[in-house]
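PROTEIN DESIGN WORKSHEET
SECTION A - STRUCTURE
LENGTH: 174
TOKENS:
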């Protein structure tokens, strides 16, 4: 009676260990994509992206436009809607220029120099991941992966809250 229990228990334990220790399926998929396309590069971020952000979940929200040039330079305009501290709302406008890098796996950093309409300035760094992409190039040939969705988190505390998240979506034809 103990032998079948030991066998079943061993199979379950082995299966659990395999599930925990085996490579993630999405990582396998990303590696397969990178073999076909040589992975992501700065060229993968090229064009106009709509941005939407949030700070500490609900403290403030932002919208804007970010333009990546495909060579490591970036510029953006952001409008932040936040509390005015007296029960109302206020808008904060930021114009940013900067640089970005991205590795083959689609993980990268953006360095922004921010200029506020108030005259203040700041420097911030975003860590990001390309969460969706499309392949470009001729059929059967290695092409460039074009980022269509990007998720980022700012390292520094923001103007309105401590945790700043930003999401970028490529605007085709713009």
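SECTION B - SEQUENCE
RESIDUE ASSIGNMENT:
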């Amino acid at each position: 009676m103990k032998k079948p229990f030991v066998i079943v228990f061993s199979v379950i334990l082995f299966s659990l260990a395999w599930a925990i220790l085996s490579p993630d399926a999405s990582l396998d998929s990303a590696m397969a994509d990178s073999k076909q396309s040589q992975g992501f590069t700065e060229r993968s971020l090229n064009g106009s992206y709509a941005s939407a952000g949030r700070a500490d979940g609900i403290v403030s929200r932002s919208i804007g436009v970010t333009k990546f040039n495909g060579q490591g330079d970036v510029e953006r305009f952001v409008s932040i809607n936040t509390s005015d501290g007296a029960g109302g709302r206020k808008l904060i406008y930021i114009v940013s220029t900067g640089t970005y890098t991205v590795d083959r796996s689609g993980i990268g950093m953006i360095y922004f120099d921010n200029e506020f309409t108030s005259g203040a300035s700041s420097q911030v760094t975003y860590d990001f991941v390309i969460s969706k992409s499309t392949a470009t190039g001729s059929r059967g040939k290695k092409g460039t992966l074009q980022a269509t969705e990007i998720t980022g988190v700012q390292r520094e505390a923001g103007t309105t809250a401590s945790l700043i998240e930003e999401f970028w979506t490529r605007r085709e034809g713009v």
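SECTION C - NOTES
Confidence is low (pLDDT under 50) at residues 5-35.
The domain at 42-170 is CATH 2.40.128 (Lipocalin).
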